[in-house]
Amino acid sequence: MIGIQLTYKAPETLKEALDLVGREGHQILTADQSLISDLKKGVPSLHTLVSLRKIPGLSSINIDNGELRIGASASYNSLLTHEALNQYPALAQALATIPDPHLRHHSTFGGALSHGGRIHAPVLAALMALDASVVVLTRDNDTRLPIHYFSQNGNRVLLPQGGLITMIVLPEPAAKSSAYLTVNQLAGRQANHGIAISLTQSGDTLDQIRLILAGFTEQPIRLKNIEEKLAGSSLTPDSIKSAADQLGQDELPIHNDRIPEGYQRHLAGVLLQRALKSLTKQTVS
Amino acid sequence: MNLELLINQKPYQQDIEPRLLLIDFLRDYANLTGTKWGCGSGSCGTCTVLVDGKTTKSCQMLAVEAEGCAITTIEGLASTTGLHPVQTAFWENFAVQNGFSTPGTIMSVVELLQNNPNPTEDDIKQWLQGNLSRETGYEQVVKAVKEAAERLTDQHSNGQESASQNVGQSLKTRKTEALLTGDAKFIADMTLPGMAHAAILQSPHAHALIKSIDTSEAEAMPGVIRVFTAKDTEQVMPMPVIWVPPYTESHFLSHPSGIVPGSHRVFATDKVRFAGDQLAAVVAETRQQAYDALAKIKVDYEALPVVLDPEEALKEGAPLLHDSVPNNRMLNAVFGDKAAVEQAISEADVVVEQRIYNQRMMHNTLEVRGVLGNFDTHTNQYTLWTNTQIPYPHRLLISLYVLGIPYNSLRVVVPAIGESNGCKGNLYPDTPLVLWMAKQVGRPVKWVDTRVGFSQNTAQSRDQVQYGTIAGTRDGKITALRCRAFTNVGAYPVINAPGQPLPLIGKSIPGAYVIPHASYEVDVVYTNKVPAAPMRGSGRAEAIFFIERMIEMFARKLNMDPAEVRRINMVQPDQFPFDNGLGWTYDSGDYENLLNLALEKADYANLADMKAEASLRGKWLGLGIGSYVVVAGVGNSAKMGGEGLLSGTWGSSYIHVAPSGEVAITTGAQPHGQSQDTTFAQIAAQELQIPVDYITLKHSDTSNPLYYGQASYGSRSLSVEGAAVQKGCQAIIKKAREYAAYLFKMPLELIEYKDGKVIGIPAPEQAVMSLQQVALMLWFGWDLPEGMDPGLEATAYFDPKNFNFPYGTHIAIVEIDQETYQVDLKKYIAANDFGVVVNPGVVDGQTYGNITLGIGQALSEEAHYDPETGLVLTNDLDSYAIPRASWLPPIELYRTETPSPSNPLGAKGAGDVSNPPVAPAIVNAICDALSEFDVQHIDMPVTPEKLWTILQDKQSVTL
User: Which residue intervals define the domain 2Fe-2S ferredoxin-type in the entry (chain B) (predicted)?
Assistant: First the structure.
């Protein structure tokens, strides 16, 4: 039962949708149903839902010019059954942490950015590790935002008023390795802790690395300082340990207060080290 | 908005509100109530349907978003040729108990098998992550899914069915088809002509004075019929308390009857005492309108200090909940000889002490509570439909002590009912309130709770602090055990409040051991928490956790094998009947045999090798033992009266053999998932020697022909109510033989009852009548012996002289990740003895359910409160973590059968008795895994963060 009165609109074109999304109290419904629980708890400022379900093309997944283009209304399940997914192990492994078929069918990539929340954290982390970009349509233009825009120091950043996410774009994987690691025990409770990693190497040297922690903060958080420190170096047991030791308050501002901060910081360190070791086994063994 | 869609291939068109959820459309507009509302947050999966073939939780989707879609609900699954193979497989594999979670789980499985025709066990468990089962666990569900896969791919061959349907056979459960097809009507599925809907306002403060209540805006809302507050209900009496221990001073609240003490009223009057205390109610045309109006009621509170901890509540100066209760102490009780225990402890070689907190648990049944009340002005009859496990006590307590109406004017009916876990064995103020409101508005009124409401108004459980001392000799013999306890009963006493903290815990703490000196002292204390009541395993769970942790610590202090210390102290087979020194007389068994069996199955001899191998993988491996013996089979009535229970606890049955030969049995049991329709029919079929299909069970309605039903709780049904069925059948046979002796003109001793016939032994070909023929002749009543009445019927009672005592040993093997502290349950072995088992398939299901609940208590479940406001923080199934399919390893069950002398069936309790050993087995395993760090004890739930915190002091973490 939803306690607030709602108006529901389902425009059939992007132009009609753009006319609506800029208005006060209007919320996009991308076919992602995670919003429903929030509605039951009450969202005082919301009075109109703008569903994208009738706009053609938003659920498509295709490869264009080497890029994987995922429509904002594409479900997690539709990507899980897409042959391109095996090019992106981090994303495949992040999706695998969501076994509930309802969530796979009714969680969308646009919803991950529009609604946030713990369900979407692993997928968002993987997208961030893979340097995805987000196609945002406004009345004036069609721009691409880096996905990192949506997370500032672990806090969720909303899309500017009037914008409409139509697509998430993953660059060609090239020689990049990636993975998503999680801790299963906590899956039954509130937090879904995990880490997404991607990297490219020249011999033993790390060229580029992305490290994204999920579940510790409101939105997945990029460990930028650690990335910078590791880039251009070879991984050794000492450098891996040193990276984990960097997970202080500045690098990882813990937002989840139901679990002791000390343990979360410890767990983040374990995940970080495991992630680094998992992709660079030959280097550190 | 106009909505058009297909449901089960049938087109529907309806004008709806945009905020309407798909589940509400299916249930309220399409009248397809097989889809169940459970948690409302997409966590439990009871509302699962297929939308365009995709598994969808219909509580998480707006109906308008299903525009143009094809929906399949449970009602659309079976075809004209019969059940869907998944439904059949669930039935065949005992995967259905109360059936509330069944439709949603089946719908999810249908999609799994469409996508993956041959899933592995892991595939199935992963897929079922979105479907909770609170009563039966997942073992039989997984088996059912595997079999369904075989059926769908024509690989399944039907097994050989046993010719016998009698005691000891896993006869397929009866009355199950309606649960599989969604046709069974639970309380939320019921409607009556002219029915109105109620919503009840709960206090958001745990302790506050009520300054004023303004209902004017609510009264003006659309569809509102009446708004009620405490000023309207002055004539409604408080809830009664029917357990008053005679051996100690107790402080309940006043009750105008003068017969029993009281508890809270239907509405709080002067102040609220827990967040959830109810203050007002709205009756409206629709449920949505009732809740919309409820949000408009304004209450002015003056907040008071909150106390949530029982030891704090006892202190001078603590916030006082009830003016008539000094220091918030409901009562203090002592079992055993404290002085003798002190003396034994002082003389012992070894003494171990430990504080243990058995955490507050929430029953969190997937089906919330609900009530439908009606008052017929023409007949002056009240009818109450509610999902309670105690319908006859509801009739008595509501009529006599709450509403003050004639007992004979009230009928209580229990529709199909989801699991209870014990919380539906209480009388809540909402129940008489809804009935009373129905009379006031002159219409049937229905109230079905919300998940948040349930978390705040439905009893919670456990919540006891125990200060334990165990003492003994250097060679491992226990000489003394002491438990000083503080029980947190919350803000008000429930009807049987003292039962759990007093005898059920206090007399059970010696467990399976001979302990010469044991004592238990408890303070039962009011706090600003939700009232507490028994929960599956009640009392025994706290006691067995206590003794099994204490004996483990004792063994480790002595550096002895914990299994050997158990052996040294266990009650031996030649010691029965065994007086445990605190009030229980154990009936029969071979406790050590099941300990040894479980150890063998766990490969205990190779534990060191297992540990070493796990260590190479970065895991600490541990093995934990949970041995138990627990009381079950309540009555005896006199003994329970001696404990203070103001009720009989005998079993009863009424058996009616119709002229057609059909047998109808009314039982005093109240099924809520235990399959008495099947097991009691098996007992009667064996006794009467007729096919089980001739036999029908009646229950769940106080208008049935039965004097009184003492209901089902605490694993009593089979051994007490089932024994009454057996006794009733014997009375039927006795009359049939006496009648045959008269007709055949033979002495009674020459009349044999065999194969459902009375036979004159001297002339078996001529002097023979079937039971049906006897029933017909007695119905005619043309020729009866002197003193014999017509008809073939019998009423029987059974009041056991003693309780019965099921027992066993469970073993858990866990691995703890040395970096993340994640606890993985690797293996679980349960060796139990429930006496004579009537239906092994049914009992296995109950055992899996008990184990699943115990795993939840050990590893994840705990009611959390805001320490400042007293609000329940775990108010949904996202924040209160119930075990899911993937958490569980394959569970191995082993069973012996030692008959109980306490009843003629030889049965012992089974429904909740195998829960108590689970949590201690797991915590013992965790402590064993961490033995190198000298971790003596960890309070439940044992979470990775708790382990990390403890080990911070114990080790230098190197990664």
Answer: 1-77
